[in-house]
Amino acid sequence: MSSEIKENKEATKPITLLREDLISAIAKAINESKLPAFVVEGVLKDFINEVHIASQRQLDADRRKWNEVLTRHKNA
Questions:
Q1: Does residue 49 contact residue 56 with C-beta atoms inside 8 Å?
Q2: Average pLDDT value over all residues in the chain
C-alpha cells in the first residue's frame, strides 16, 4: 500500500469523537467503494498491518524518549 499512517499530534476533539468520526469515514468509504466483501477484507487486513507497524514505531519512540528523560533525571 502506498498510503502512510501519520501521527496526529494536534487533535482538538476528544478522542472518543475522533474515533466516532473515523469509524463513520471508514464505513462511508467502504460503502461507496462498491467493492465485494472479499476485496474489502483484504484491503482492511493490509491496512491493519500498516496501523500495527505505525503503532509499534510510536511505542518504540515513546520508550526511547522516556528512557532519555529518566537518564537525564538520574544524572541531574
A1: no
A2: 90
